[in-house]
């Protein structure tokens, strides 16, 4: 769900309660551009190495020295 900053401001507490209740994040926009995300707190995210979220996500490791983008190719 998305909501503009101007719509968020007068309903902030109501929206925060809805995020807590539903567990679904809300994206707050500024002139149609996403700028913030309001989501429920999770103790799992605190104190962890950010790279730990990626652990186990690589399913194949083929040609690790190959360029990753066309502009990297020579």
Descriptive notes:
Strand 2 and strand 3 form a beta hairpin. The longest helix has 11 residues. The model has no long low-confidence stretch (mean pLDDT 84). The protein is of the alpha+beta class and 74 residues long. It has a domain of 41 residues: YefM-like fold, CATH 3.40.1620. It contains two helices and three strands; from the N terminus they run E-H-H-E-E.
Jot down its keywords.
single chain; 74 residues; alpha+beta; YefM-like fold; three-stranded mixed β-sheet; 2 helices; 19% strand; elongated
Gist of the model:
With 74 residues, the chain is an alpha+beta fold. It contains two helices and three strands; from the N terminus they run βααββ. A three-stranded mixed beta sheet has the order 1-2-3.
Order of helices and strands, N to C? EHHEE
The major sheet is characterized as:
3 strands, mixed
Q: What is the CATH fold-level name of the domain at 1-41?
A: YefM-like fold
Structural class: alpha+beta
Oligomeric category: single chain
- What is the CATH superfamily classification of the domain at 1-41? YefM-like domain
Low-confidence stretches: none
Q: Please estimate the helix content.
A: 10-25%
Instruction: Characterize the overall form.
Output: elongated
Radius of gyration: 19 Å
Q: Count every helix, treating DSSP H or I runs of 4 or more residues as helices.
A: 2
Give the overall average pLDDT. Answer: 84
Strand share of the residues?
Answer: 15-25%
How far from one another are the termini? Answer: 43 Å
């Amino acid at each position: 769900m998305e909501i503009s900053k101007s719509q968020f401001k007068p309903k902030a507490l109501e929206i925060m309660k809805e995020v807590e209740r539903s567990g679904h994040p809300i994206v707050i926009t500024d002139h149609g551009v996403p700028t913030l995300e309001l989501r429920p707190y999770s103790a799992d995210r605190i104190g962890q190495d950010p790279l730990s979220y990626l652990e186990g996500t690589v399913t194949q490791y083929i040609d690790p020295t190959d360029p990753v983008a066309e502009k990297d190719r020579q």
